[in-house]
Amino acid sequence: MITFAGMSHETAPLDVRERVAIDAEALPGVLQRAKETFGAATIINTCNRLELYLPGIHEPEAALGFLAVELNVDHEVMQRHFHVAYGPDAVRHLYSVASGIDSMVLGETEVLGQVRSAFSSTVAAGADNAMLSRLFHTAIRTGRRARNETAIGERSISVSSIAAQQARDLFPNLAQASVLVVGAGEAGRLAAEAVVAYGAERVTVANRTFERAQALADALGGRAIPFSDAVEALRTTDIVIAASGSPEALFEDPAVSEAVSHRDGQPLLIIDIGVPRDFHTSVRHVPGVSYHDLDDLQDIAARNTEARASEVAAVQEIVDDETSKFAEWWSQLQIVPTIAAITDRAEEVRRSEIAKTLRRLKLGDAERAHVEELTDVLTRALVKQLLHAPIATLRERGDQDTYLTTARMLFRLDEPVDVEEA
């Protein structure tokens, strides 16, 4: 049915997540190669998880081997930090992700958009199929149910809002602080919006594509600067929120030290939520710099989880309910062709027998039409009665492969049958 292979903040530290992150520009190519290998594929690629979903059942070596090649990591890393799940377990995992109960920050809202974006990327790359479409649309529905029917999303503190909280802790009056946002993607936008919501008024945006920086700056009431000016901007910035999505660190320690030397002792807060990180971690040792990356934010997230932990059981009930619905849909998808094949085979035999009987009777046209009408009604009723019990049993228990396999063997559905012989 479904194969899942992936890792998250629960199974891999930040340095491993950095190594396996897929650059946004490379993702379409990875999806297309996955389609060539597995027929279809969806990848959720965020700062806290990398997950591959495939239709059908594939051996762990196949799924993990594909990822190892694409991510350029050795087998030992895959075995230690990635895990594989199948069928309902894979479905339940995705629904838990979409519902926010598998997130670093319990009940976060961004993850639902990330699930939606992941499938949109799949469609754009032409790597989707009916199974994955059903899976991800129902995952989005599950995430919405979780937030509408429980309090899991109330007062939730996302990674972005935790970043803003850190900024407010160091600069209680954010209106007086200058904020530099590096990266105009989703993570940067959400963090910037959270900082503005906390009171920041002086926001500057730098992005590799200046037009995107300008668009975000306009939305925030701030200003955009060329990406090349970001290092120099550290001299006058109080808070940096970095989420560029760059595959390499953008800010070298010497450049940061040089910028800090022009700050007259004013502290510089750097909140690095990029994966890979935009600053070298040794920047935390530069005097005057307070540096926080995702692992640091995870400690705060753990403390904030307690307030929403009581909602997990209610969300889990929704996840289990939706997982059962998906399993039922899948079983019916498997059952319907078998039932149709049985009824088609019975109809083929019925028509053949009526034709043979009418030939033997040697009736005139008027009598033949009357007898044919009667025998048609009679045989249809007989076939319906005879097939009623086995078809009802298939509908009830068709989710068990044994029943489908046995039915196909008993009715010889997978081999041609001579109706004259039957």
Task: Give a verbal description of the structure.
The chain has 422 residues and is of the alpha/beta class. The chain has 3 domains: 2-156, Beta Polymerase, domain 2, CATH 3.30.460.30; 159-294, Rossmann fold, CATH 3.40.50.720; 332-410, no CATH class. The chain contains 16 helices and 10 strands. The chain has helices at residues 14-20, 27-38, 60-71, 75-81, 87-99, 110-124, 130-149, 159-170, 186-197, 210-220, 230-233, 253-260, 294-305, 312-361, 365-397, 401-410; strands at 2-8, 42-45, 49-55, 83-86, 178-182, 202-207, 223-226, 239-242, 268-272, 289-293. A 6-stranded parallel sheet has the order 7-6-5-8-9-10. Helix 6 (110-124) packs antiparallel against helix 7 (130-149) and helix 8 (159-170) crosses helix 9 (186-197). The longest helix has 50 residues, at 312-361. The radius of gyration is 30 Å and the shape is elongated. It starts with a strand and ends in a 12-residue tail after the last helix.
Question: Layout of helices and strands, plus pairs?
Answer:
Layout: E1 2-8, H1 14-20, H2 27-38, E2 42-45, E3 49-55, H3 60-71, H4 75-81, E4 83-86, H5 87-99, H6 110-124, H7 130-149, H8 159-170, E5 178-182, H9 186-197, E6 202-207, H10 210-220, E7 223-226, H11 230-233, E8 239-242, H12 253-260, E9 268-272, E10 289-293, H13 294-305, H14 312-361, H15 365-397, H16 401-410
Parallel strand pairs: 5-6, 5-8, 6-7, 8-9, 9-10
Antiparallel strand pairs: 1-3, 1-4, 2-3
Helix pairs in contact: 5-7, 5-14, 6-7, 7-14, 8-9, 14-15
